[in-house]
Amino acid sequence: MPLDPVIDRVTDRIRERSAATRAAYLARIAAAASEGPRRAHLSCGNQAHAYAAMPDKDDLAQSRKPNIGIVTAYNDMLSAHQPYERFPEIIRAAASRAGATAQVAGGVPAMCDGVTQGRAGMELSLFSRDVIALAAGVAMSHDTFDAALYLGVCDKIVPGLLIAAASFGHVPSVFVPAGPMPSGLPNDEKARIRQQFAAGEVDRAALMTAEMASYHGPGTCTFYGTANSNQMLMEFMGLHLPGTSFVNPNTELRDALTAAATERAAQITNLGDGFLPVGRILDECAFVNGIVGLMATGGSTNLVLHLPAMARAAGVILDIADFHDISEAVPLMARVYPNGLADVNHFHAAGGLGFMIGQLLDAGLLNADVLTVAGGGLGSYVREPRLRGGRVEWQKGSAESLNDRILRPARDPFAATGGLKQLQGNLGRGVIKVSAVSPDRHVIEAPARIFTDQEQVKAAFRADEITGDTVIVVRFQGPAANGMPELHSLTPVLSVLQDRGLRVALLTDGRMSGASGKVPAAIHLSPEAAKGGPLARLRDGDMIRLDAERGTIDCLAPDFDTRSPVTADLSANQHGMGREMFSLFRAAAGDATDGACAIL
């Protein structure tokens, strides 16, 4: 199937925009690769330090066996990362069987946005991505590894690991998922009880019971938020082995897939004929394919923030217009909570990513001729893994959806477009995700109510102050102001207001979450208020028009452009919970539309 003209045009546009930076990047990784296997350049003393604790140190010192570095985000506080505790043992055994060795090169921090929602710790969340990239860079700096396995799942962890992998782009790299927890309390029931609690209809004991039934065991949360969007992204970009994203933890198949990833990493080093540095995989086509997957699945808006930063690490320059144009060309093929009632386990059972990739390839909506860790282009990702004799074999996946309420073919989608829109107007540039928003709420025109943090919104709600149609403006929430925390804890409040019949919307220079979506939310507005952006000129009562159909966001006050921006007292955001240590990141962060990265 010929490539869709919009996908072709956007890919070419990115390629042209990135010509100089990508060429410089490829030259750097080619120069590093030309030096040959890394360990050959270490002195005897260097090597002795590196191998001292290894039982097979003689193999490392005297043989040409590949040595695989493991960069892990393991901790046992995050359900998604707890399964990684066992992975180094599995990887070392698999490496030995494949004639290789493996070492844990280092660990990276992995915080949980679910724990820090609405708390001061959330103001460290976005920049934890940069810390993860730096920590992974430290792990890889020992320069003793012929390939790398990156173990991470959740919100900032995969983006941070990918930035590091791109920075060490001469090293072959495979990303290894841990899988989602089994299904628990249905997500719509959880959301209903949250709204009842926000409205004062149930007590905290009922809320706690529901939450514990939702988040109940090892593995990724089962809704389609940022963590599971990350896993989709790695598969669409060819960095996972096919079909691995949504296999549950602590199963025989999960363990076998981890072993298979290890074996594949050993096959693509610079010691043999199949050398495949990860920087060559991370080209313009790979990032376009990732965006296509994001739109087709209705994935997290957080990836609109992370993808530009990840791409920049590989010399590829993305713009939010690229997301908008791809969204307009790509149909929404999945309904997974919060865009539907199903969770990711149901999605996987219905045909999952293999079915979607096959459909999108047939429709000409994906770049097929790309490099992947599995080899064979993206066409190999229509296969799904099966166990045979304790080992993984890949077979052709289902060509039909097994549940058309969850997953539909490209020719008969849930919606003709992916549902992500660029917004632009006198209030700046930002995005809105409308895949879960009722069409009658795609245009909201209402007076503004100005807040400078989400607790103020909750207090106004509890005091019954919001009784009419309102655009709730939460400003000074950008990366330079307070680290750009998610405002996901506002979701129950906004949902209750909408359910009362009010026409409400959120407008912010902050971000929401992949778990949000039924209330129209114009997010990532740039330039942010803390940098004198347009939101800093808004006043209570200003009429705001949010038009997702036309892609505009404007203040209708006639004197708006002549006003001076207000400033805010941000002193409360600068200290406590480690925030003082992150002042360097806040000062260096770029605009949200460019990825809000402080290190690139």
UniProtKB/TrEMBL annotation:
Belongs to the IlvD/Edd family. Catalyzes the dehydration of 6-phospho-D-gluconate to 2-dehydro-3-deoxy-6-phospho-D-gluconate. Pathway: Carbohydrate metabolism; Entner-Doudoroff pathway. It comes from Paracoccus jeotgali. It is an enzyme of class 4 (lyase). This is Phosphogluconate dehydratase. [4Fe-4S] cluster binds at residues 154, 221. Binds 1 [4Fe-4S] cluster. Residues 65-379 form the Dihydroxy-acid/6-phosphogluconate dehydratase N-terminal domain. It holds the Pfam family ILVD_EDD_N. Its cofactor is [4Fe-4S] cluster. One of its GO terms (molecular function) is phosphogluconate dehydratase activity. It catalyses: 6-phospho-D-gluconate = 2-dehydro-3-deoxy-6-phospho-D-gluconate + H2O. SUPFAM superfamilies: IlvD/EDD N-terminal domain-like, LeuD/IlvD-like. GO terms for cellular component: cytosol.
